[in-house]
Write a structure and sequence with these properties.
It is built from four helices and three strands. By secondary structure, the protein is α+β, with helices and mostly antiparallel strands. β2 and β3 form a beta hairpin. α1 runs antiparallel to α4. The chain has a three-stranded antiparallel sheet. The radius of gyration is 27 Å and the shape is elongated.
Protein backbone atom coordinates (compact mmCIF):
# COMPACT_ATOMS: atom_id res chain seq x y z
CA UNK A 1 0.00 0.00 0.00
CA UNK A 2 2.92 2.33 0.72
CA UNK A 3 4.25 1.84 -2.80
CA UNK A 4 0.84 2.72 -4.27
CA UNK A 5 0.60 5.88 -2.13
CA UNK A 6 4.11 6.92 -3.12
CA UNK A 7 3.36 6.30 -6.80
CA UNK A 8 0.10 8.25 -6.63
CA UNK A 9 1.73 11.17 -4.82
CA UNK A 10 4.71 11.37 -7.18
CA UNK A 11 2.44 11.16 -10.24
CA UNK A 12 0.21 13.87 -8.80
CA UNK A 13 3.09 16.21 -8.10
CA UNK A 14 4.72 15.54 -11.50
CA UNK A 15 1.57 16.15 -13.48
CA UNK A 16 0.61 19.02 -11.19
CA UNK A 17 3.90 20.76 -11.88
CA UNK A 18 3.49 20.09 -15.59
CA UNK A 19 0.03 21.63 -15.38
CA UNK A 20 1.64 24.99 -14.66
CA UNK A 21 1.31 25.48 -18.41
CA UNK A 22 -2.50 25.21 -18.36
CA UNK A 23 -3.45 28.30 -16.34
CA UNK A 24 -0.67 30.43 -17.78
CA UNK A 25 -0.44 29.59 -21.48
CA UNK A 26 -3.45 27.52 -22.53
CA UNK A 27 -6.42 28.68 -20.47
CA UNK A 28 -5.80 31.63 -18.14
CA UNK A 29 -9.56 31.86 -17.61
CA UNK A 30 -9.28 28.74 -15.46
CA UNK A 31 -8.51 31.16 -12.62
CA UNK A 32 -12.23 32.06 -12.67
CA UNK A 33 -12.87 28.66 -11.06
CA UNK A 34 -11.19 29.95 -7.90
CA UNK A 35 -13.56 32.93 -7.62
CA UNK A 36 -15.64 31.44 -4.77
CA UNK A 37 -12.47 31.41 -2.66
CA UNK A 38 -11.35 34.97 -3.45
CA UNK A 39 -14.42 37.00 -4.50
CA UNK A 40 -16.56 37.98 -1.53
CA UNK A 41 -19.95 39.72 -1.79
CA UNK A 42 -20.76 42.17 -3.32
CA UNK A 43 -17.84 41.44 -5.71
CA UNK A 44 -19.18 38.20 -7.12
CA UNK A 45 -18.38 38.28 -10.85
CA UNK A 46 -14.88 36.96 -11.68
CA UNK A 47 -12.93 38.35 -14.61
CA UNK A 48 -9.43 37.42 -15.80
CA UNK A 49 -7.66 40.25 -17.59
CA UNK A 50 -4.43 39.96 -19.56
CA UNK A 51 -2.12 42.96 -19.71
CA UNK A 52 0.58 42.90 -22.38
CA UNK A 53 3.60 45.16 -22.03
CA UNK A 54 6.23 45.96 -24.65
CA UNK A 55 9.63 47.23 -23.52
CA UNK A 56 13.28 47.00 -24.49
CA UNK A 57 13.48 43.43 -23.15
CA UNK A 58 10.56 42.19 -25.25
CA UNK A 59 6.92 41.46 -24.64
CA UNK A 60 5.46 40.23 -21.37
CA UNK A 61 1.91 39.35 -20.41
CA UNK A 62 0.42 39.46 -16.92
CA UNK A 63 -2.86 37.84 -15.95
CA UNK A 64 -4.94 39.19 -13.07
CA UNK A 65 -8.13 37.93 -11.44
CA UNK A 66 -10.55 40.78 -10.76
CA UNK A 67 -13.80 40.49 -8.83
CA UNK A 68 -16.49 42.85 -10.09
CA UNK A 69 -19.67 43.99 -8.32
CA UNK A 70 -23.04 44.65 -9.94
CA UNK A 71 -22.22 48.37 -9.99
CA UNK A 72 -18.84 47.89 -11.67
CA UNK A 73 -16.62 48.26 -8.61
CA UNK A 74 -13.50 46.10 -8.89
CA UNK A 75 -11.15 44.32 -6.48
CA UNK A 76 -7.77 43.07 -7.65
CA UNK A 77 -7.12 39.52 -6.42
CA UNK A 78 -3.86 39.07 -8.36
CA UNK A 79 -2.88 35.86 -10.08
CA UNK A 80 -0.45 34.14 -7.72
CA UNK A 81 -2.95 32.92 -5.12
CA UNK A 82 -5.51 31.67 -7.69
CA UNK A 83 -2.63 30.04 -9.59
CA UNK A 84 -1.39 28.25 -6.46
CA UNK A 85 -4.92 27.04 -5.69
CA UNK A 86 -5.20 25.66 -9.23
CA UNK A 87 -1.80 23.97 -8.91
CA UNK A 88 -2.88 22.31 -5.65
CA UNK A 89 -6.19 21.26 -7.22
CA UNK A 90 -4.40 19.67 -10.18
CA UNK A 91 -2.07 17.77 -7.85
CA UNK A 92 -4.96 16.49 -5.72
CA UNK A 93 -7.06 15.44 -8.73
CA UNK A 94 -4.25 13.49 -10.41
CA UNK A 95 -3.15 11.89 -7.12
CA UNK A 96 -6.69 10.71 -6.39
CA UNK A 97 -7.14 9.35 -9.94
CA UNK A 98 -3.86 7.42 -9.80
CA UNK A 99 -4.71 6.12 -6.33
CA UNK A 100 -8.16 4.96 -7.45
CA UNK A 101 -6.66 3.34 -10.55
CA UNK A 102 -4.11 1.51 -8.42
CA UNK A 103 -6.79 0.29 -6.03
CA UNK A 104 -8.90 -0.86 -8.99
CA UNK A 105 -5.98 -2.88 -10.37
CA UNK A 106 -5.35 -4.44 -6.96
CA UNK A 107 -9.00 -5.35 -6.69
CA UNK A 108 -8.98 -7.15 -10.05
CA UNK A 109 -5.62 -8.94 -10.24
CA UNK A 110 -4.54 -10.59 -13.46
CA UNK A 111 -4.89 -14.39 -13.48
CA UNK A 112 -1.64 -16.27 -12.91
CA UNK A 113 0.05 -17.48 -16.06
CA UNK A 114 1.18 -21.03 -16.65
CA UNK A 115 4.84 -21.16 -15.62
CA UNK A 116 5.58 -23.86 -18.24
CA UNK A 117 5.02 -21.54 -21.20
CA UNK A 118 7.07 -18.68 -22.52
CA UNK A 119 6.10 -15.60 -24.42
CA UNK A 120 6.94 -17.39 -27.67
CA UNK A 121 4.93 -20.56 -27.07
CA UNK A 122 1.19 -20.43 -27.58
CA UNK A 123 -1.00 -22.04 -24.93
CA UNK A 124 -2.12 -25.50 -26.02
CA UNK A 125 -5.32 -26.94 -24.59
CA UNK A 126 -5.93 -30.69 -24.60
CA UNK A 127 -3.65 -33.49 -25.80
CA UNK A 128 -1.12 -32.40 -28.34
CA UNK A 129 1.09 -34.48 -30.56
CA UNK A 130 3.87 -32.82 -32.55
CA UNK A 131 3.28 -32.86 -36.30
CA UNK A 132 5.45 -35.40 -38.13
CA UNK A 133 7.86 -34.01 -40.66
Amino acid sequence: MTKLLLTAASAGVSVGLFSIVVPVAIWPGEAKLTAPLFCSPPYTEPMVVSDTFHDSEGTSTNYTLYCVSDRGAVTDEGFVLPFLVLLAAHIVIVTVLVLLGGLWVRRHPTPPQDSGTTAFEPLVYGPHEPDPL
